[in-house]
Amino acid sequence: xxxxxxxxxxxxxxxxxxxxxxxxxxxxxxxxxxxxxxxxxxxxxxxxxxxxxxxxxxxxxxxxxxxxxxxxxxxxxxxxxxxxxxxxxxxxxxxxxxxxxxxxxxxxxxxxxxxxxxxxxxxxxxxxxxxxxxxxxxxxxxxxxxxxxxxxxxxxxxxxxxxxxxxxxxxxxxxxxxxxxxxxxxxxxxxxxxxxxxxxxxxxxxxxxxxxxxxxxxxxxxxxxxxxxxxxxxxxxxxxxxxxx
Length: 245
Description:
By secondary structure, the protein is mostly helical.
């Protein structure tokens, strides 16, 4: 009996993923179709809410076909509906999808998903001194912040702009004190600075000195002076919280 029930579950699962090619496993066709459409539409609702730009740029028909191929082909094991957008972004980044999609679509989808991910980060604020010395004391980075590197200018892609060539792009995404998610465009040096500060319990001065060495900068004091202003700006934005007490 248990074996028959497990086989029914597997057969029903195959039908739900691909109702056009798999027969319903011994249940009335009308009930099977209604249940299949209910589940697929539920998944589409999460995708539509998280990826409005992707949907608009692909057009409704192409977008729904992509939703269907994800629903059918991707090994989605998570039981949480809120994790479906993350898995869709992974699907676009890792699957061989035919016909080919725009080269920038996978990164655009990741960029749209990051807003949801940062909004949901459950990380208490570490102890910090908001007015602390960012050069001489270890810097505290907002735990709800992610530094991202893309091959395409994803933050600019839309109806009026679809890039033809890659353009290396650095972004910081963080949750502000009012719980809004904010995006900031960075240059390569600022992105490296934030990456070092997030990975190491280090002072702003140490991080800037390391960057000066990596760049073989001809005037490290000049870079440190410039970097000090960047640190202050990042603190005003809420990307940096301050220094260790």
